[in-house]
Amino acid sequence: MKAIDRLYTKDETIQRSVHIDQDLYSKLQDLSQNVFDATVSKIINVCIENTLLKNKPIRFYKKPNNTDSIYRSIILRKTFYDALIKQKEQTGISFSRLINGCIKEFLDDYKL
Length: 112
Known about the structure:
Oligomer: single chain
Largest sheet: 2 strands, antiparallel
Number of helices: 4
Order of helices and strands: EHHEHH
Shape: globular
Mean pLDDT: 91
């Protein structure tokens, strides 16, 4: 991978408020503050891209018992937003659950 491959090209963005499980959001905050030079929104976009690159439906991620859900505003790349809306329409899984599934899959894939 070349250094330039690490940069996204310009894309329209969409601000959306979603319910994110507290434990997942806390991990993302830790990664944003201590590991990566990226905002939580940018990390979420990477999580979504990681899942979409696999070209398979997003797995349903059931909210664990005793876990609170927090309502957060995030900025999504429009191409990723559109892909998630398409999956939402095909599967009936809520947009927030799809986002949580992408985050969980990313954290599991990279053991973060």
